[in-house]
Amino acid sequence: MNISHLLRQYEKGHRDFPELNLAGVDLSKVMLISVNLTKSNLMGINFSRGFLTKSNLSQASLNWGDLTYAKMSESQLIETDLTKANLTGAFMVKSVLRSAKLSGANLSYSNLRGANLSDANCCGANLQGANLQGAKLRYIDLREANLQGANLRDADLEGADLTNAIVDNADFTNATLRDTKVIGTQLKPQTIQKNLSELQLKRNPNYAGSFELLSTSYAVAVFNKDNSLSC
What we know:
two-stranded antiparallel sheet; 8% helix
């Protein structure tokens, strides 16, 4: 289906467009609200400043796509491939990105307030200044991610992996950090004060760690050689 035909069908009221091949096309500033694009090939698509509110892009390929400042609130992106995608400034409030692939993606200054990114792969992603307030981030992979200045107030980070993540000036106020991995991650003591006992004493088959205060300003996770707790 070419772009002009797609837009004509949309104007006629059609919203069901699964498994389309729109790789590399230019849909910048286009409005496609409540459409079904599940399992579509959208690799390298330009959807900057477009509208995909309440749309379903689950299992679609959006890797290397340009979604800068796109409006995608309350959308479904379950198991969607967004590897290396540019989502700078994207508005994704209450969207569902469970198990989405976001490794290397640019989400700087995106609005993901109340979104669900549980089990998502955000390894190496750029979330500088992103709004993740109240987001569900259970078991998310944030290894080596850039979370500088991110808003993580009230976020659920249970089981999340923040190994070597950059969290300078990130706000973790009232965040849930149960079973959270923070190996090599610098966290201010006031950030973890309420969660210290859980982080320090919680044991599971995959992770055992504790916090050691290095100074009055930072704390890091440490291990013994036998992988036991260092309390």
